[in-house]
Amino acid sequence: MATNLSATAKVILGMLRMRPRSGYEIKSFVDTSTSFFWSAAYGSIYPELKRLREAGLIAGTDEPTGDRRRVVYELTDAGHAELEAWMESEPETMELRDEPLLQLFFARDADEAAAALRAKANRHAEFLGRLEPIRPLAASLTAGTPALALEFGIAFHEFARGWCERKAAEVESGRATAGGGS
Amino acid sequence: MATNLSATAKVILGMLRMRPRSGYEIKSFVDTSTSFFWSAAYGSIYPELKRLREAGLIAGTDEPTGDRRRVVYELTDAGHAELEAWMESEPETMELRDEPLLQLFFARDADEAAAALRAKANRHAEFLGRLEPIRPLAASLTAGTPALALEFGIAFHEFARGWCERKAAEVESGRATAGGGS
DNA sequence: AACAACATGTAACCGGTTACATGATTGA
DNA sequence: TCAATCATGTAACCGGTTACATGTTGTT
């Protein structure tokens, strides 16, 4: 325990606790579930898998499909302990990089502000377009909590889109000053 | 134009359009305004300032305080054009790294889910504690849009905190399944 | 036959963060 | 005098992303 896990290690261990998986399966599941708030690329998954195996947190079994090699990983006892320690720890990273918001920040007049708000609203709408179709998938996989995380994503983007559209309308209609409710 | 600007370059150019500033001033203004959605460290600001000057997008003037050297930068015409091109371009990056949400995703039962939701709510509350005191500052600096961006931050964290607390209460009271409105 | 999907991996690149190093000024 | 703040910069580090490289299997 007390090893500090990389971002990629956290998502790998969690996904392997759900069920054993190959690197490829981890990647495709990440892409269809956590990617909107926690992404991972092949270039970090495979090296991390190697490190985690060397550290004794996961174990790999060869399960080829014909001649196509394939390694399925599962958590060891040490891996379980490590994951649980992280799950109980205080979450640290909550980071945002929001370019449309930066454009809004730098807007000098009502026109620019409205344009930035519309652009931001569109971006959130795009996310919704990607999130909503995977909703049934997430709900089916495990009864409860992955679906909750997805729901947060949907609720957040709906909120943000709505907020931006309301503010854009306000700004466009003249009253550009700060103020207003939640 | 058409140069692709780094994350740090975007925030530097924007801040210099508001008014000329030293690297130190850029950093401290970033910390009290955009940092919650667009941060920048000295280690990227000073090298970037050098690159931008070499690229002819900004110009520096020596304005020492006694014997303490100090360089104040301002936008050149090329810098103005570059910034405007970026402002009018489609914003690309909208990234999130949300550790409490990942913990929620991996929670296996109602207890773990509730704990993750409470932890996430607390994190949002912490952000609010940092954002609310700088509200008057942002509102005063320029009449309009920086305050709007700040307001989005406050509204977002309020929304997220409320959502997490509501869901935590739901999960704790037994009905742990997915569902429910916006 | 060809293409999409399965499957694994490496290497170069990029760029932000942390830590370090230095020095002046101001207010307590 | 001492600490906080002003002020600038570099170097090492870290780690994620992109691109590249290779081969199999299943589907059309």
Structural class of chain A: mainly alpha
Give a short account of the largest sheet of chain A: 3 strands, antiparallel
Q: Strands across the major sheet of chain A, in which order?
A: 1-3-2
Total beta strand runs of chain A: 4
Give me the number of helical elements of chain A: 7
Write structural notes for this entry:
- With 182 residues, chain A is mainly alpha-helical.
- In chain A, 63% of the residues lie in helices and 9% in strands.
- Chain A contains 7 helices and 4 strands; from the N terminus they run H-E-H-H-E-E-H-E-H-H-H.
- Chain A has a 3-stranded antiparallel beta sheet with strand order 1-3-2.
- In chain A, helix 1 crosses helix 4.
- The longest helix of chain A is centred in the C-terminal third of the chain and has 32 residues, at 110-141.
- Chain A starts with 6 loop residues before the first helix and ends in a 10-residue tail after the last helix.
- The model of chain A is unreliable at 178-182 (pLDDT under 50).
- Chains A and B meet through helix 1, helix 4, strand 4, helix 5 and helix 6 of A and helix 1, helix 4, strand 4, helix 5 and helix 6 of B.
- Strand 4 (94-98) of chain A pairs antiparallel with strand 4 (94-98) of chain B.
- Chain A binds a DNA duplex (28 and 28 nucleotides) through residues 6-8, 22-25, 28, 39-44, 46-47, 50, 64-71.
